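sorry for the late reply, my laptop died twice this morning and i had to redo everyting from scratch. anyway the thing you sent over, i finally got around to it. pasting the sequence first so we're on the same page, its 351 residues, then the predicted structure underneath. double check i copied it right bc i was rushing
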Amino acid sequence: MWRAKILFLAASVIGGIIFSGGAPFHATRAAEASDAARWGKNELLPPLKEMTMAQGILARSVPLGKIDTDTGIEKLTGLPAGAGNAADFYGKLEEYYAADRVAPDKPAVKTNGAGVAAIFKAVAVRDCSLTPQYYPALTSAEIKQPDLVVFLAYARALIDRAKELEDQQNVKGADTVYRCALIFGWHLTQHPESLLVETLGLRVKALAANEYARFLQRQLDPREKFAREYFDLLAHAENLLERKLGYFLGNTLAFNSLYSAVRIATEDADPAWRREAILRLGVYRHGAPGSDGKIIFTDPAKQKDAEAALIYLGEKDPEATNRQLAVWVVNKLTPELFLHLTQQRVNQPQK
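ok and here's the structure:
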């Protein structure tokens, strides 16, 4: 999983080198008119001529909308129909993790432990929402994120379980487990409460799709074509996600990504991206941080713009959860807490 780490860090560092602030961005009148039309009535954005070149470029070119990671999955797995909330089972994985680990110094877990058994029950259920387990009351408690190491360890345990069954000549059983791994990932991206959850689900699906395609190839199964196509879709989605996260939200030097963050927070159709942008604006409210999360640059006007966006979102975001989050961010979020909440995204476990 170090590829994701390298790309994420590279996007932030390269963006910081290329766009290091500088003089205001003096666009032509035609460009300003085009931007005004593109931005619509977003009164939280200052005129383009008041932005630096970096801020203007990022604000103008930021991609908005949900990244497709599901087209084609039904051809491979079908979708479960059971009632309930699959997260009732996933919420226990961290509880089972200590007993399921194969060794104290490794993240790997047993392929026949309590956690894998819980996942087999979860994938029979249609709906999945982690809100009750991890995001019950943003205004009264710290945000708790799912443990990335734990969830990825169980995803790999499913793949290992499938390979064990294949080695035992149980091809049908192996096929079923591979499809369970795909549903596990699909559940996590079904109603992602945060970008961390969406990223986690994407990586679980990519791992499962890649291994399933290899399995189908060994079985000379024509569904290999669908598995390869689905994996290609996921690889493309991962590239888009890393670029949007690292370039349009993570380029913090000199407030470079402030206004692209405002656009994502106020205009993006995907609630998970709006939530991520709200968290970033909470950091900008204190100043512009360096790679270590510590504030290295302050600008009262820019900090005021970030706070104004948060106050607006606390009243106007279409989702109650996001409105609560914006209020919580204004009252509670510090750069240090933000770094704590997001460190798992950067510090990926080794394979």
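The chain is about 65% helix and 5% strand.
thats about all i looked at so far, will dig more tmrw
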